[in-house]
Write a structure and sequence with these properties.
The complex is a heterodimer of chains A (103) and B (164). Chain A is an all-alpha fold and 103 residues long. Chain A has three helices and no strands. Chain A has one domain: Helix Hairpins, CATH 1.10.287.3510. In chain A, helix 1 packs antiparallel against helix 2 and helix 2 packs antiparallel against helix 3. Chain A starts with 6 loop residues before the first helix and ends in a 13-residue tail after the last helix. Chain B has two domains: 76 residues, NADH-ubiquinone/plastoquinone oxidoreductase chain 6, subunit NuoJ (Four Helix Bundle (Hemerythrin (Met), subunit A)); 40 residues. Chain B is mainly alpha-helical and 164 residues long. The chains are: A mainly alpha (103), B mainly alpha (164). Chains A and B meet through helix 1, helix 2 and helix 3 of A and helix 1, helix 2, helix 3, helix 4 and helix 5 of B.
Chain lengths: 103, 164
């Protein structure tokens, strides 16, 4: 049914999504968008896992994708809590202005 | 199926570009939801029906809603959004990222074999994932529960503290 998709296309899509995520992480200064870029990178990783899992007809990759989703949920929770604190303490969500990491 | 993969792939790349290029974080959050839905479509094409459902339910249903909620809670006016400047460091890092992606695509291009035909009807079903999760990867499963506990404690400790 999906016999005509080469593995290289899935891995290329994963690489492009990861690159866009790294780009957003490096270039943007808005803490919320930095967190969204991290989600993009995690998604690219799970796409690679799914592609490899389908290619090898071995379902271990699916377990890791499930773990990645859980880790992403925990990361988003903590990251957004930090964004709320940034807004409360500094009045902005600019990550460049968060220089003193004292909580 | 093949056409669905390529449509979802191009849409996910376009919406990922929307995520990192919009000034308004709400537009970015909606772009992120679109990326996640498209990745779920690709999961279905790759035979992971259970994980596609989880992707929609947890990622697009919970995490993105949390992002939207926080964007609305913070209520950032346009003046409070950070000014995005183009510095030489950013241009340098952009070049390095382009190099990284180019190398990754080159490495990916070596595996030109097509995906094998899927004969197993139970591939990607919830029973198989659960079986693996509670046998081979049970240590991982337990560690993740510690991670979630740590995240809960950390979030409460962070946000509960009163700020003068």
């Amino acid at each position: 049914m999906t016999g005509s998709i080469p593995l290289s296309h899935i891995l290329t899509l994963s690489a492009v999504l990861f690159g866009i995520g790294v780009c957003g992480f490096m270039v943007r200064r808005n803490a919320l968008i930095v967190l969204m870029s991290i989600e993009l990178m995690l998604n690219a990783a799970s796409l690679s896992f799914m592609g490899a899992s389908r290619f090898l007809l071995d379902m271990s990759g699916h377990v890791y994708v499930l773990i990645i989703i859980t880790v992403a949920a925990a990361e988003a929770g903590v990251g957004l809590a930090i964004a709320v604190l940034l807004r409360r303490v500094l009045g902005t969500v600019n990550v460049d202005e968060a220089k003193e990491l004292k909580g | 199926m093949q056409i669905a993969f390529y449509i979802a792939a191009s849409l996910s790349v376009l919406s990922a570009l929307v995520v990192i290029s919009r000034r308004n974080p709400m537009h970015s959050a909606l772009g992120l939801a679109l990326v996640l839905v498209n990745v779920a479509v690709i999961f279905v094409v790759l035979g992971g029906h259970f994980l596609a459902a989880m992707q929609i339910l947890i990622y697009a249903g919970a995490i993105v809603v949390l992002f939207v909620f926080i964007v609305m809670l913070l209520n950032l006016p346009d003046s409070a959004l950070p000014r995005e400047r183009i510095t030489s460091t950013k241009i340098l890092s952009f070049g390095l990222i382009l190099f990284l992606v180019w190398k990754l695509i080159q490495a990916a291009g070596r595996r030109v074999e097509d995906l094998p035909v899927l004969n197993d009807p139970s591939f990607g079903e919830v029973e198989r994932v659960g079986e693996l999760l509670f046998t081979d990867s049970v240590l991982l499963f337990e560690l993740v529960s510690f991670l979630l506990l740590g995240a809960i404690v950390g979030i409460i400790a962070l946000v509960k503290r009163r700020v003068a």
